[in-house]
Amino acid sequence: MNSEPNLVNDEDAEEVTNTKDKLARYRASCEKLDKMSSVKMDAIEDSDIPFSEDNPKIAYDDKDDDGDDDKSIQCSTSIETFQRDVAKSLPPSEIVRTLCLKNPEKLLHHCLPITCLQLLEGIVLVASEGPSVLIKMAYFEECAFERFQLFPNQCSISGMEFTLYPSLECGDNPVLWHKRRDKPYDHIYIGFCWAGSVGTVIRLTRTVKTGLKLLECDDGICENKLVNFDFIPVSAKWLEGGTILGLLSVLNYFVIYERIEDNAGNFTNLKELKRIRCSKSETLFSGKIYGESRNNIRIFAGTIFNGICVWDSNGDEAIIKHELKCHDGIIFSLEYFADRKLLLSTSDDRTVAAWQFTENVKGEEEVILLRRFYGHDARVWRALSIHGYLLSVGESSDVRVDILNDGKVHKSWKAHDGAPIFDCVYDQDVEILYTGGNDGSIRKWPKWWYRLKPRILSFDVIPFDDENDSDSRIQGSGRRLENKDYPKSVILLDINHVIVSMESGRIIGLTWEGKQFELLYDERCEGYSIIKISPDHKILAVAGNNGHFYTAQISFSQNESTKSSILHAKKIFMTKISWNIISMIWLDVSRLLIVCFNRIVALLLQDSENDERSDIQFIQTFDLNLRRPGIPAAVEIHGKHVVLGDELGSLHLLRYHKTNNPISTFEKAHKDGVTSLMFYDETLYTTGRDGVVKTFSVNINPENDIEAEFVPLTSLSLGFDWITGMYINMTQMLVCGFQKEDFIIHSYNEKRTLAKIPCSGGGNRKWDFKYGHGKQGSRNASFTFVKDKEIFYTYLPMEGYLNVMIKEGLHCRTINCAVQYNNNERYGIDYFTGGEDGTLKWFQWDASNQRISCIQNMENHLSSVRSVCIFNDVSNRTLVFSGGGRSQLCIYSLDFANDRMELIKEIILVKTACKQTEGDVRIMDIAVTEGKDDLWCFSACSDGYVRVLYYNAVKAKFKIVGQLKGNAHAVMKIQLLKTGSTFKNVFICGVTSNGYLIVWSWNQNDVISLQGSDKKSVAEKTPCFIRLLRRTAFLSMKVIESPKMLDTNVYSLVCGGDDCSVSLWNLEINRRSSDSIECIISEKWTRDHIQRGAVVGVDLNSDYVYSLSNDQIVGFWNWDGELQKKVCAGVSDCQGFVVDQSNGCVMCFGKGVSWVPIMIRDND
Prior knowledge:
Layout: H1 10-33, H2 81-87, H3 92-102, E1 109-111, E2 114-120, E3 124-129, E4 132-137, E5 146-149, E6 159-164, E7 187-195, E8 198-207, E9 211-214, E10 217-218, E11 221-222, E12 226-228, E13 233-239, E14 244-249, E15 253-261, E16 267-277, E17 284-293, E18 296-303, E19 307-313, E20 318-325, E21 331-337, E22 342-347, E23 352-359, E24 365-373, E25 380-386, E26 389-394, E27 398-403, E28 409-414, E29 421-427, E30 432-437, E31 442-445, E32 455-457, E33 487-492, E34 497-502, E35 506-511, E36 516-521, E37 530-533, E38 539-543, E39 548-558, E40 565-576, E41 583-586, E42 591-596, E43 599-606, E44 615-623, E45 633-637, E46 641-645, E47 651-655, E48 664-666, E49 674-680, E50 683-688, E51 692-700, E52 708-717, E53 722-729, E54 732-739, E55 742-747, E56 752-758, E57 767-771, E58 781-787, E59 790-796, E60 805-807, E61 815-821, E62 829-835, E63 840-846, E64 851-858, E65 865-872, E66 878-884, E67 888-895, E68 900-908, E69 923-930, E70 934-941, E71 945-952, E72 957-965, E73 971-979, E74 985-992, E75 996-1003, H4 1004-1011, E76 1019-1021, ...
Parallel strand pairs: 72-76
Antiparallel strand pairs: 1-88, 2-3, 3-4, 4-5, 6-7, 7-8, 8-9, 8-12, 10-11, 13-14, 14-15, 15-16, 17-18, 18-19, 19-20, 21-22, 22-23, 23-24, 25-26, 26-27, 27-28, 29-30, 30-31, 31-60, 32-59, 33-34, 34-35, 35-36, 37-38, 38-39, 39-40, 41-42, 42-43, 43-44, 45-46, 46-47, 47-48, 49-50, 50-51, 51-52, ...
Region (Disordered): 44-71
Subcellular location: Cytoplasm
Protein name: tRNA (34-2'-O)-methyltransferase regulator WDR6
């Protein structure tokens, strides 16, 4: 009888070992070389594959064994092949409609909380999002996640477990899969996912030709088999090479299954082999299974009653080993690290516990509670032990890094902008942490361990003796021995070099490694000196006492023996100015402003043959009449104008050579002084000591350039005590400043705080920040400051703070409102959403690539956003109105060409609502209409009034001019019924929280009377019609002109409320006079047996009526009240929907968003 051939010989084993070593070295060097996005991970696993420097793809042998000519390796290909194919030939509307027909019962797309993460072999990242799994090659930033919906819409995956599956051709040695030429680099992962009591088994392959592929997915549709259990699993583990599946149930018993396949290797079912019950009957919330064989299993079971039960199984019975208690809440997660015999538990009590398994003198196993870790502000969901650190994430959005041995906190930061973090995984090969949150985003943290703790740079202290002792003096300094030299101010030459101005007048250079260079000395700078480096870091400007000024050239040389760089400085120009110098500002590499109380001296440094810029030309002296001397900021505009910011917060525009005084001034741009100015993309950015970033347009008359004005655009408060400046590298803009004892680095693009550096608070001229200079510093930064006569330095690897998003999310909390905007000139579909987190988001859904792209995030609201409306005004400008808590109404203008949304007006409709009391008035809904040359905005409020806002397009002024009185209950929804083509007669239809329908009349006479009234007067109108329609609150309403009636005064009204019913009414409105109307309302039908939750959204058109309830059911009715179809929205805590009839889908929102098809096929 022939034996099985040995697939591993000595030569193969050596090559396998070399391959592993290469892979390990490659992963470790990816981060260091910053090439993770360009190097293809698959290619490194074959020693015969050369790298190509010129081609981002990696070539290998032209011919495979199958004869195919393959020129490159793809990092991934589309799983949803159908979606990619149609995207090349169809417009967006046709793509969505075709997808609706392709997947009539499943979600078209969604952005939901990320509940689970798993990293497979350090290469493939798998995440669970609602009923779907997402997969991605972890190292390839250019590749998006592929999405596979495994479960029905209403399910949410609660856990998953993957393992590397042995191949039939390669036996039990998966490493040899890389050597097969018929299927090169073939990996097969087998996974088990479960949602509640339903589970499924899937197979994931990674090959050189097709990239990532789910074998259960065909033509974009998943055909995986679902298995129903009679229990709910809390943990799973693949055993015995992936043939056996072990499940831990919520009732603390262990179930062993055998995976059943057909002849083609497709999963068909799970066959239960044995059920092992633990004698301690507990209800579990979490668990962990450790072991490789069904006959040797250890179970860690976390109960809902604060305890942890540890028991073993030999395949026949359960043996309880330990019962652990220290928590005061439910055990949320358990993680066991076998190499250290360490168990980590997280709990509802906001703590993490570390348990050590040891042996006593008798050889018996004992468990010791090492330590409890505190510090989280909310529940802790997950904890990991990495390199002596304990890393934990939780509901407060914090990632905490504690030292495992002593329990001290090492680092903590907000990773998901306030959204709870449910899971995290760690790639130990390249030391990257991945986190998934409630906002639907997945983020990576390459430098998670790096703590921004300033280090002290040492320098030589030179004492000064008597004047007669020339050997111990520096060129005539009179400082004595007891007064040793110390630093006065610092600047950063680049990321690694610091230039220091000393009290004696010395100027020295320091490196972060501790090297020191004696650069310059001038006795006239003793006790007072200012140093500024040019933007190209080649010229140093130095100012001293009594107007003394000089420049020096900065250069580097190399020590031939040590190969280290040496810093040099040489004086090239010296002069004296008639006034004392307060500050200096470089405008560019050749222009320098010298600030002297109320005068500004502009100098031009011209290049000489050796690039010394020693030929200095006087440009102009500007005279400023300032109440407080000093110009802390300046910027040049197109080489002809310069903008100055003064200590009182005003902006001044000056013109070279034509006038010595400002040609335009904008008073009090900032309350407490301007700190920095930046001119970028034809926009002026200003920052101030008031913690606000503002933008201005500088409008200069092209025919007469001494006529100009500042036009304010946007204002953003970051909550800093003092913003020091803005910095830009490529397209990434940073805002820096001081908050209490910390230096804050904030991303202007990503709208989040990146880092906090502890420091003294930042005195004038005693700190500096540098971002992105030089080849090695293009993605890094450094910060230095002087405190207690010491020099502190901090290096910031910015790749660990910027561009951490690998999957974009949306709101941190529930989404309350949404509106869709169709722009035929844009490829995707634009949405504007407002949430409980107080933000207004603008994002785009690209149906062809099944991807959400966040365009802009606005944080102007003081409280939650309850309503959003979009409208084109008379000048064809697109405006967005958003309202919410504290009766705050924000109005934005949209620039689709540049993807920019700017705040143009912020109004508090009820002034008393600014107080944080229970009686705060909230804006519940907004409706806008246009007049001849103006706009009218109607805001439904929670105090029972509809407030009217008038906008004059000519004067660009907003004014509250009236209010419509209700019945003292909140007006939940309103809609304008406009008669005619002009703003002559308008009916405002509203529904209230106590079940009433109210109709108000608004006509041209109201407009005329309001325009001629006193500025302080506010008109009030009472309802023309009011009728009780239901005993419970209205939550949704939609009115259209009835398509079934010829009379244009008859409307169809559909409404829903918290009694779970949907109603259709006929509403006839006849105007009797300018102030009176007649309303006749009759009910057509009411349906309350389909939807089991409050109806939060309704819509209708000429064919169908739509409804959405917060139990996730979307109903589809005909006009006779017959249910045609219902689908599940897949979003928990639904708040509403946006029906897109042209595309045949509906976007549902709540705790996330989803798109579901609503079209009815002919055979339905």
